[in-house]
Amino acid sequence: VNILLNSSLVIHKVRSGDEGWYSCVAIKGESAEVPQKYSAKLRIAHLGDLTRDSFEPPISTDWTRVVPERTEFEVTCVPPPSDPAAKVWWLDPRGHTVSDSGPVRVDETRLIIKAVRPEEDAGNYTCVAENMAATKTASFELVVTTPPSILLGPLSITVEESQTVTLNCKYQAMPPPVTTIQWFRDGKLVVPEPNRVAIHENGSLTISDIMLEDRGNYTCQINTIGFHPAKSKPAVVHVKEKLKFSPRPVNKKLELGSVAKVYCKASSSTPPVIKWVKWGKVPEGEEQRMLDRLPKNVQDINGTLHFNKVQVEDKGTYTCVATSSQGFINATIDIDVIVTPKFSVFPRNPTEAYEGYPIMIHCIAEGDPKPTIKWDRNSNFSGFDPNRFHVLENGTLLVQEVHMSDGGKYGCTAGNSGGLKREEVTLIVKSAEGYRPVEGPGPIEVSDGESSMMTKTFIITLSVATAYMVLVIGLMIWCRYRRKRRKQAYLTANGAEGTDT
To answer: What's the CATH architecture for 246-338?
Structure first.
């Protein structure tokens, strides 16, 4: 801020804080006259920005306004905050100032188009606000729409299930996004699905891997903003059911001696004929051959195999063949004959053991395939000390040295491809104080009345060996006795001959 020699006030680079009243006061020397004072107010000229909210009604985020042809259009440009007041006017798409008369005119800051024309009136309109501080502009695009029309609608079609079908809909309308295309099936909107149902920009509908549920009446609809939708006549889509298994037969495991059924179901546009065949066993290296008939205990009733008491011979390869006017299909499966696990020796429940001594808990199962035996303690399969717990080949659990903490519930599970069977036994561990183990052939103590397979085997083996030894000794005594008698008879005969001589 500077004061010149002529008392003029100069403000360089005026800022908003400089705004306000300024007074020039004149005082004449030592005169008693009242000083002369002149005041002036400094105002800072400014002009705010024009935004989307400067238009009433507001403009969309993409700075466009869509209106149908031959309709009246009005929009007001609200002047931004300014000082001094800004002057506002409109520019048409050709950059000319819009006057206050004619089909396109202004009324103060309002733009008015009496009847919008697609070619003449479409384009960018600009609102201009200006004062001594600046000039600000904001533009929007006026899109004039025309009514849509369908030139050629979809045609009815018949397709086979799982094929691809395309329905065409040729139309005339404004380009997207002003115009959208929709398809309806039996009055319900068709929703696009990735890799299966697609609606293209040219209006066509493509359905890949068509299903029976896709059949129906299809209609295409063209929607343009500002007009009623244009709808095509319905086209009927017929879907012929494909010959197929429903469901496809799968490999089966049948219990020996049971009554069982194996299903084979198929469907098509015409009822199919379903038949089962069995393949016979052939020497290794040769191809299988189809048997003339099924096993005697097996019947094929309308595509269902009925097994009356499953036999081992029923095991093998079977093929289901479905035939219709559309051709034939087949599915081959393997049928296995199994015996689910059955316990031949059950663990004794409860089982008592003495601390510090060994114990055997027997659990033997039979089945085909041979079942495997798994033991668990309190439902924990990994809670065994491998140094003390051993599972023998026949499934028996051997505890070489029982601890008090070994008490609890033990589970024996026998399993094969036919299923699982489980038995539980409670092991009660007693103190060994005052206990005297029963003398036996081995180090394993067997409690009174317990059917120990190991003890039985040892007793049988010992009995056979004893019997064999008794037989051998008896034969030796008998042979020695017989030789002695022969020798005596020989000597007696020779003595008699010597006397005669």
So the answer is: Sandwich (2.60)
